[in-house]
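FIELD: query
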Amino acid sequence: MIELLAHIQPIVLIIMLIIMYGVENLFSYLPKPANRNSQDLRNFSLSILALLLNAVLSVLVVMVLELAAIHQWGLLNRVSLPVQAKIVAGVLLFDFGSYMTHYLQHKVPFFWRFHSKHHSPLHLSSSPELSLRPMDIVLAQCLYQCVAVVLTGISPTAFVFYSSIAIPLLILKHSNIKLPHWLENAGRLVIATPGWHKIHHSSCKPETDSHFGDVFSIWDRIFGTCGQKKPLRSTDTWVNVRKTFSRKWVT
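FIELD: result
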């Protein structure tokens, strides 16, 4: 089962992109830009490059996972817990580390220089999510994952479970869609829903520096990095932060 999940993740990612792109065109939450087709073509081209880079770097992450399991590195390999409890703890610890990494990407100028590309599109769409700079992928994904595996001792099983949740959610929460009110309100109590994450892509700086959770929204609630339930300003145009050497925001 675990091996199957690991093997089908790239397929799931591609299917999610196709599905969400179709849903966005039929039921857009916010108006589509006039140049949507050319913008999407560019973004999907960059996404292919990002996927190829991820595929190469994932080999390194898998190697670290195997070494950690063999040598019993990390916290969870030092404590005695039932297997199921270790899987749950591994998923939570890994996501907490991802939350902290995302926080640092916004607070540390060196990291922001690369991460700002992700915030530069002026319109909501599922396609820009994978259009990350190579260094952003190396720092925030490969490097973080390798370090987190060594520190937490997350098992390969827990890692695959986490990835199987994070990958579809990655596309969903950046899509130009609006969930039914009841589903959005219930979902955001636990996970980063599209409405919850849209606040993070606001053109208002305090809002952009909030809602950092990648999978679970609980970290933002625990550490006080969540605020508005809805953006103070319309998010039909995201903040343009192309000048990545200085943090200049739309005010």
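FIELD: remark
The chain has a mean pLDDT of 81.
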